[in-house]
Specification:
The protein is of the alpha+beta class and 380 residues long. Helix content is 43%, strand content 19%.
């Protein structure tokens, strides 16, 4: 019985030793793990976990702070990086030609509006020139002043004059009504008719005109009329016969030898190398010059005239006219006089020449140069 008690005691002591060893090992393991955590613990916050919180960066010694990105800026940068795919196709750069074409609107050129009421018309469906001319012949038949039509040509990037046979269709059109000429200024009645009938024409083609103010148009028309009155000048000198009248055959020979040409209105015209009229020669008496009339004609006076606003260089035209007049006087035995029948002297010629120069300069200042296309239309 005693042997059994000793055996049980030894077994119990062994079990206690084993349990004590396990407890000691557990205590040592816990102590080592705690020491490792204290040695390797990080005091920095995880930006990925705390990116919504702004990091407080203490200033460096001396108060200087290096520039840093805030958490918000970091987040925005990462969002941009996430949306930017490496294989994404970049947006195409705008085509400079297309941008320029869109930005450039077809403005009305100066010679289309200097003496005109020019009305741009937008026609999204397009209008062909034949259809336009057929319609306007009826609707605008009562308009007396010259009316011109233009279409915007995308190929040439310019306005082109339209005629009844012009091919193609135009989405931008301009109607230009001349406001004044030598017959006078456009009347309010005619302008009202032009506006009203043009609107009807546009309605017919589903087009939209940009109408100006009628009052402003009439004001411009009156200014043009006053300008015409100020510069509509013709400088004339006369060749008077002495004892014997001038023979038509001799007038014809001298004129054609000097390069003048006879026209259907009964006058000879002298032109420069560019074909522009310098001056005119006409009969001072009632009979008009013609090839048949000149065979039997005898006259006691001839008139040489420079149309100042229609001459490209009025002073130059006047000089040519005086030179030819002196040539005629010598050949025909006549005397050059002014409109008051006073003989022309060097002094009077110089005064007339000075006046021609003043008119030329005045027209230049008004942006309607003498002899220009605009001047030729205005003084027609």
């Amino acid at each position: 019985m005693a042997g059994n008690e000793l055996q049980y005691g030894l077994i119990g002591l062994g079990a206690a030793l084993v349990l004590g060893l396990f407890a000691y090992n557990a205590w040592q393991d816990r102590r080592a793990r705690k020491h490792a955590e204290e040695a390797f613990r990080s005091t920095h916050r995880d930006v990925l976990l705390d990116e919504q919180q702004a990091e407080v960066v203490p200033p460096a010694p001396g108060g200087r702070m290096e520039p840093r990105m805030t958490a918000e800026e970091v987040a925005e940068q990462r969002a941009e990086q996430r949306t930017a795919q490496p294989n994404a196709t970049p947006a195409p750069a705008p085509n400079p030609a297309v941008r320029s074409a869109r930005a450039q609107e077809p403005g009305v050129e100066w010679d289309m509006q200097a003496i005109d009421c020019s009305i741009p018309i937008e026609a999204p469906a397009g209008i062909s020139a034949p259809a336009l001319f057929n319609a306007q012949q009826t609707l605008l038949a009562g308009v007396q002043k010259p009316l011109r039509w233009f279409g915007w040509d995308d190929a040439s990037n310019a306005w082109v004059a339209l005629a009844a046979a012009t091919p193609g269709s135009f989405s931008r059109i301009c109607a230009s009504l001349q406001l004044a000429d030598r017959r006078g200024v456009v009347s309010e009645t005619e302008l009202d008719r032009f506006f009203d009938q043009l609107q009807r024409l546009c309605d017919q083609f589903l087009a939209v005109p940009r109408m100006p103010s009628k009052a402003q148009v009439m004001s411009r028309a009156m200014e043009l009329d006053r300008f015409c009155a100020e510069v509509d000048v013709q400088i004339a000198i006369n060749l008077i016969a002495g004892d014997h009248a001038f023979a038509g055959t001799k007038i014809r020979g001298l004129s054609e030898a000097a390069g003048l040409q006879l026209y259907g209105d009964g006058t000879y015209l002298a032109r420069d190398d560019a074909g522009r009229v310098l001056y005119a020669l006409s009969n001072q008496e009632a009979a008009l010059f013609s090839a048949e009339q000149l065979r039997h004609l005898h006259t006691h006076g001839l008139t040489l005239t420079v149309d100042v606003p229609r001459a490209a260089v009025p002073v130059l035209a006047f000089d040519h006219m005086v030179a030819f007049g002196e040539h005629l006087a010598d050949a025909l035995g006549g005397v050059l006089v002014d409109d008051n029948r006073n003989p022309l002297t060097d002094r009077s010629i110089g005064l007339i020449r000075s006046q021609a120069s003043q008119f030329e300069q005045f027209m230049e200042r008004q942006n309607i140069p003498s002899g220009s296309d605009v001047a030729l239309r205005l003084f027609s």
